[in-house]
Design goal:
Elements: H1 2-24, E1 28-33, E2 38-40, H2 48-52, E3 57-65, E4 71-78, H3 81-92, E5 95-96, E6 99-101, E7 104-116, H4 124-134, H5 145-148, H6 157-176, E8 183-193, E9 199-209, H7 216-232, H8 237-255, E10 259-261, E11 267-269
Parallel strand pairs: 1-7
Antiparallel strand pairs: 2-5, 3-4, 3-7, 6-7, 8-9, 10-11
Helix pairs in contact: 4-7, 4-8, 6-7
């Protein structure tokens, strides 16, 4: 009988201990989209690679806010692949007010949405860079002809038709493989450093361009457009110079990865 009583007491004590641990376990509540709740919402940097292809649109970043209001982890779950890292970096720099539940500080999970908008006023320099990139691109799926065409006056019918040819090739590429085209989904591991210095490995899915043979029709269409624009701008020395600078710089960067363009009109080598 005494052994039975002791067993009951031990079970009761263990039950209390487990209950206490459960009550003390960190709680995480879901805050939904939390842009408007931030004390300071860091603005993302628009990556140069994304600008070169006019990548834009919304990027959703899933975050965990710790008990002090700091972002402890950030993982982009949707949006253009070239914009995701910039969105994650900005999210990690954002700050929120601490959240309490029944007087106890809790963690919050939520989503920060960043909207990247490509430049409204495209320049001939950027146009040249884009065309240079398209000469070597494995896919046209990141090329936005409507955005690119904003630089064309309405009466440039020949150049507009050449641009439409690139759009036709893009649509044909997508139709050939409606699921992914030349883009594949891969699972990668990322190491996130938390504010307390600890590291956490998370798995995320990213979109990457499959490498393959360059499309000769695409190369021909791009080079025809380059020639057409150079002829069109023959009497416009400034814009022709900018267009050719963008084209030549893009080609130089492709053959010499150690080169870096740093604003203005100069090119320097990375040591």
């Amino acid at each position: 009988m005494k052994k039975f009583a002791t067993f009951v007491v031990l079970n009761f004590v263990l039950g209390l201990a487990v209950a206490a641990q459960t009550n003390n376990a960190p709680k995480i509540i879901n805050g939904g989209v939390i842009n408007g709740k931030a004390k300071s919402l860091a603005k993302p940097v628009y990556p140069a690679a994304a600008q070169a292809v006019n990548a834009e649109g919304a990027v959703s970043v899933q975050v965990i806010i710790d008990e002090a209001g700091n972002i402890s982890s950030a993982n982009a779950v949707s949006g253009h692949p070239l914009l995701r890292r910039a969105a994650e970096d900005a999210a990690l720099q954002s700050k929120f007010a601490p959240t309490a539940l029944s007087g106890q500080p809790v963690k919050v999970s939520g989503t920060i949405v960043y909207n990247f908008v490509a430049g409204a006023n495209p320049s001939w320099f950027r146009a040249g860079q884009q065309l240079s990139n398209l000469e070597r691109a494995w896919t046209l799926q990141n090329f936005h002809s409507a955005q690119f065409g904003k630089i064309f006056p309405p009466d440039w019918t020949a150049e507009i038709q050449q641009l439409q040819r690139l759009e036709e090739l893009k649509q044909a590429e997508i139709s050939a493989d409606p699921n992914t085209g030349k883009v594949e989904e891969v699972v990668v591991e990322k190491i996130i450093v938390k504010p307390d210095g600890t590291r956490e490995t998370v798995k995320t899915t990213e979109s990457r361009i499959k490498k393959g043979k360059l499309d000769p029709e695409q190369i021909e269409a791009v080079q025809n457009l380059i020639t057409g624009l150079q002829n069109r701008l023959a009497d416009d020395e400034t814009n022709l110079w900018d267009l050719n600078l963008g084209i030549n710089l893009g080609r130089a960067l492709a053959t010499n990865p150690g080169l870096s363009y740093r604003g203005g009109r100069q090119m320097s080598a990375i040591p």
